[in-house]
Fold this sequence. Notes:
Radius of gyration: 49 Å
Order of helices and strands: HEEEEEEEEHHHEHEEHEEHHEEH
Low-confidence stretches: 448-452
Distance between the termini: 62 Å
Amino acid sequence: xxxxxxxxxxxxxxxxxxxxxxxxxxxxxxxxxxxxxxxxxxxxxxxxxxxxxxxxxxxxxxxxxxxxxxxxxxxxxxxxxxxxxxxxxxxxxxxxxxxxxxxxxxxxxxxxxxxxxxxxxxxxxxxxxxxxxxxxxxxxxxxxxxxxxxxxxxxxxxxxxxxxxxxxxxxxxxxxxxxxxxxxxxxxxxxxxxxxxxxxxxxxxxxxxxxxxxxxxxxxxxxxxxxxxxxxxxxxxxxxxxxxxxxxxxxxxxxxxxxxxxxxxxxxxxxxxxxxxxxxxxxxxxxxxxxxxxxxxxxxxxxxxxxxxxxxxxxxxxxxxxxxxxxxxxxxxxxxxxxxxxxxxxxxxxxxxxxxxxxxxxxxxxxxxxxxxxxxxxxxxxxxxxxxxxxxxxxxxxxxxxxxxxxxxxxxxxxxxxxxxxxxxxxxxxxxxxxxxxxxxxxxxxxxxxxx
Length: 452
């Protein structure tokens, strides 16, 4: 069963319940309105008629000429204080032994008929009272109210049918639109065409939002597949070069006229290239573990100046006089995995040194900024263009000037992933000819954690 049928069934059920409630409400309201109108009408007529009766000199009642015993459907009977009829007569079928009661309007059943009775007493002299009784058949007075009630029922039914027709049209429109959207989604899945999009030009806001949300999802999937293809291509490219070099050296070493020195040189080249392949694979594994949450982050109180000092001393020993670092260390503490934070700082510093001009100074700072602990690394290299700045955190991405450098294009993405896993980020600033600044931001350690 299609969604259109489900919507139509739901609408019919809702409208049927509403119609039943409205039928009951109209019936109750019509009966209440009829009874109220009858009571007011009888009271008005009986008091008006009663004032036209007065006592005569000979003890007889005097009726004015305008006094009537029947007015429309209303019958008037004059009774003495004991309920005996003095004048007038009961309508056919009405019992004549109804007790006097002037407190309220009464309904007197008589067979299949019901009579409304209203009694009003009047004192005519000492010890002499009369009662004027107004009587009307319920069927006579209810006829016009039943007509109005029937018209109300007909209106409810018409409105119900119009609502059902509107619901049917609406359900058809929703169902057709959803079918078109499903076809578009199936086409994307069948042909793996991520550029396909759902189209909806109707006036239903919710369906428009649904189509837009699906299109945004398809755009993200398309971008993800594109990045995956680019990633696969970049991995193949990065691994192909060292493997090709190792293959060439192996072929060279198999030559018949190769000397011992040539063998030694070939082995050294193969060793360097295998280290490079191992480094690429290690970085990829680290990124993969972080992506899939397979790295257990051991959070502990971390002193950033101490880590920076340690990383800089280690790099200074390896680089010798080529590396010149200026430290500006202020107190900055965070909670995180010391090993991972150290890798992130080391990658930022390695990246700065790699692309700095010969003899330039790399400035490393720590401190607190806007409620975040930071490590800032400033180099004085050639800088990065705005176009390239948008891609520097993508894996295997290298600017044109660094294509032939020793880097793999994985250091910055790994550092960014580590920062994000700790609830932080990395900010990049650069100007052509002035160098670049990379700032690692991490949450400041909470006082309660530090005291613990």
